[in-house]
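User: I'm preparing a small set of examples for a lab meeting where we compare how different chains pack in three dimensions. I only have the primary sequence for this one, and I'd like the structure in token form so I can line it up with the others. Please keep the answer compact; I'll paste it straight into my notes.
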Amino acid sequence: MAGTHEVLNQAGEPPDYDAFGRDAALGSAVAVFGAGWALADLTRCGERIGSGLVRARAYEANRYTPELRGFDRFGNRIDQVAYHPAWHELMGMIRADGYHALAWTAGQPGAQVARAAVAYLWGQGEPGVCCPQAMTYASFAALRHAPEVMARFRAGILSSGYDPRPVPPGEKLALSVGMAMTEKQGGSDLRQTQTVARPLGGRWAITGHKWFFSVPASDLFLTLARTGAGVSCFLAQGWRDDGARNGVMIQRLKEKCGNRSNASAEVEFDGLEAVMIGEDGRGIPTIIEMAHLTRLECAIGAAALMRHATSLAVFHATRRRAFQRALVDQPVMRAVLADMALEAEAALWLAMRAAAAVDAAGTEATEAALARVIVPVAKYWNGKRAPGLVAEALECHGGNGFIEEHPIARLYREAPLNGLWEGAGTIICLDVLRALGRTTGAGEALMAALAPGRGVDRALDEMIAAIGAAVGAPVDEARARGLVEQIALALSATLMVVHAPMVAEAFIRARIGGRGLAYGALPPDVPLGDILRRAAIIPTD
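Assistant: Understood. Below is the structure token output for the 541-residue chain.
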């Protein structure tokens, strides 16, 4: 059959490229938010992410998904998860790049920004391996409430190595940390936790279930259980010091829409041995400190998917021809791609500004107050915008994008995840209202962050004024989503006015000054070529 035709007019595989060096917006964000010292590390990471090797391993890890090994061949219950070798190879790479540790080991301002940039790059490589490393990174927010526990496990958690063996933490040099909070009856309402903990000679024995246990192969994991004082936070080992599985019975692995390379499980705890983290009865506030960082991760991850999808669409359009012209030279397609590029860049700036606020929160009260608002705002808005943009990118590929061999299909299944992980949209918007109402100085910090956007465009001025009026008014939960959307758009526009003026006007005119509802319905005279050149992973002309 090979002699029947010649294969023409297919885009083919992208060449290896530097995903950091080819991203002008990311390079600017790293510089302006104080992480320029990390350029060498980010370049190495970018070259890895843009390689054909990572693309191949990501495909394999999603094609050959994790399997539950409940029993060994002799009938002993082992409750282990088996992964394809591609997963383990990717896990070794991502830990070597410091995804989980850079924020805590760099020891200088901008560490959170540098780590966010690594997360943004790896979100374009394989999001599945990002999940366990994101929780390992964020676990520090909870573990700081238990200094002795932190001291015991700190070196293993921060290690740049990777050790997948199912053995006790004390036998390993590299440790991963997971999270198991959600139960069947409660969802995001953690106050409904039914799992119980009883004292066990200075430790605790936990019995109950978890509906979602992220990464059940974790060496350590944080969970919630009810004591006599209320819902409390605990840290458990996956395997006890004697080598036995620590009371974790995996019922089944979730067959998820996306994020398929990564295992999530339904589990039961039967005498799970654990130590308490933080104050008895104050487990939800303790674990929420970890969730604040994983919500930042959702904002970064959604922005990364948007960047990756846009890059794939632009690459395809430069290589595919129709009606005697490359797709990228067709006026309608050109407008669609430029519109997507604007959206992806705005998502990047919003996520990186949130990382910068988290970075400075320990020393600057205003930044701490802003972080409490901007993290859930970025999580909500980027999570909401990613699925539509990825769907548009898939459509740019035509039928080629609708088959599982193409990475855009995998991105399409992945796209909703960041909108629902760590709280779906409504929960997050209510959290923004709570932050504005209860965090001292949050409203003032938000309006100060928006101040540089004033005087640039009338529509933006009106939006900022409306936000100011809403911040100072009584809480109206029915308006929560509308207000958060306004904050996200105004912050994105302001950040681009200050740091990316070459595309700021186009974004304001497209998103704030009135626009159509579909990608490509841009105002006239928007510099499409300049926007596309800025977004392309390789030159478009």
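A couple of notes for your slides: The chain has 19 helices and eleven strands. The radius of gyration is 23 Å.

User: Perfect, thanks.
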